[in-house]
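I'll show a typical protein example:
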Amino acid sequence: MDLHQALKHIIRSEGPDIVTDLRLVNILNDLNAYQDVQGSKYILRAIISDGFAQKLLHIGRWNKDAINLASQFAYHTGFMPDSVEIIFNSLAFGLDWINQLPKKAHTNSAPEPQSATSTSLVKHRKSWGKLNVEEREEWLNSLVEIKPSLCGLTYDSIYIADDSYNNDVAFYINYEVSGRLPKDRWVNLAYAIYDTSNRLRKKSILTSTLGDSKGKTYNIVDSDYVSLNFKYNDIGKIMIYIED
């Protein structure tokens, strides 16, 4: 279900206050409503947890104040402005403040995975410091590969958020881990960054050690800061995997 339609359905069922409740993030996940907008789950979670959803609801309609609020959120968090605009427009649609999404809001689907040797990826002529946030995040997210595991955990909701300064390459890996582990199984969620020659350049764990603790079900949403000491167009892939 499209995000804006899913929001309308949920708000009609639960009432407008649901947009200020983090339960909304999981309800939308169950409806597979995050497929078409890059990073939408993390953006919506931040809108709610940082109090912007409450401020939007207080404004009570889609007007200049609401549009300015969306801009403030994008500036405050560093998320891609186009994606932020789509989420706020979708909330406005769900609240019956607008009758349809702006045409632009239908065009920002998540990029398809691409090979690290793709011309569009490796032949940027700009320095990293001159790329805008959208270009940086599109680049980084296109390089993510998720290695599946049979451990019982789900960890396929990954979003890279740029946090670079000038020509330094730095970002957050936002991740979600859910599910249960088999008995006597202990693992970490980890990342490994390879260059275009497939050499391992950096690796680390994202989670503290996870284990089967009396049938515990995990539902972890967190992020990890990564800083690189090599050029951005040397990055070949960012692998997310389970480390036993």
User: Anything to note?
Assistant: The first helix runs from residue 3 to 14. The chain has eight helices and eight strands. The helical segments are 3-14, 23-30, 40-49, 52-59, 64-77, 81-94, 119-122, 133-142.
